[in-house]
Design goal:
single chain; alpha/beta; Rossmann fold; 5 strands
């Protein structure tokens, strides 16, 4: 599902918006295709709650039709370094980042997010759900793979009223096969202010990125490879 896909003008789309650069780029892509975008973010006990402030700022700046924040019981997504269990890994190489499933994996997070998005989409008559998942991110997350996306599309087809009637909500992931540098280039071309986005797994309360977690390392390398200046405010590195 590449960045050049064409979509019907005016289509209603739920965009899962985390506050990071990937989902911000997806929102910009959907808006550029003329879709009516409803941004959806989640409060699930994440240690980096400042990401929700970033998501709100991005939704407003890019011009989303609406932005909702859905709360999920924190116990449903416990057991991750991102929800307070253990420390966030720091200083790993890209080779290390690509080995196995990291402690920052949140159990079934994207599956729960899509389930909520499907309910919202069906209740409001939205035709699509757009996700910022990326299989080439070297992060090892099982719920960012094309296989998972295909399985969730089957859930949408078999487990909803609109699905069994022959018009299932479509799940799209335009970044799934793109590298971080290419995502940054696309977002820049669409006017995304990456200074508003937050990728860090362990930011300060003020939103300064740690500069050493897996997400910060991939983000920094992505900007370098794209030949662009990284607007991120880092607390430990420049």
């Amino acid at each position: 599902m590449g960045a050049s896909m064409q979509y019907p003008w005016g289509m209603q789309t739920i965009v899962l918006l985390s506050g990071g650069l990937d989902s911000a780029t997806v929102l910009a892509m959907c808006l550029a295709q003329g879709r009516q975008c409803h941004a959806l973010s989640f409060r699930y006990g994440q240690r980096h709650m400042v990401e929700l402030e970033a998501a709100a700022a991005i939704a407003k700046r890019l011009g989303a039709t609406s932005h909702r924040i859905c709360a999920i019981d924190v116990q449903c997504l416990a057991g991750s370094a991102l929800t307070g269990r253990g420390n966030v890994p720091k200083g790993r190489s890209e080779v290390d980042i690509g080995q196995g499933i990291p402690s920052t994996y949140v159990p079934a997070r994207n599956t729960l997010f899509v389930a909520h998005a499907l309910g919202l989409a069906e209740s409001m008559g939205a035709e699509e759900i757009a996700l910022g998942i990326n299989a080439l991110d070297y992060s090892g997350y099982p719920d960012c793979r094309p296989e998972w996306l295909s399985a969730m599309q089957e859930v949408a087809r078999l487990g909803t009223k609109v699905g069994v009637s022959g018009q299932p909500v479509k799940l799209v992931a335009p970044l799934v096969a793109m590298g971080k540098a290419d995502i940054i280039r696309v977002g820049t071309s669409l006017g995304v202010d990456f200074g508003l986005t937050l990728s860090c797994y362990d930011p300060s309360e003020a939103g300064a990125a740690c500069g050493a977690c897996d997400a910060c390392i991939l983000r920094r390398h992505g900007f370098a490879q794209a030949g662009q200046s990284d607007p991120t405010k880092y607390r430990d590195v420049g």
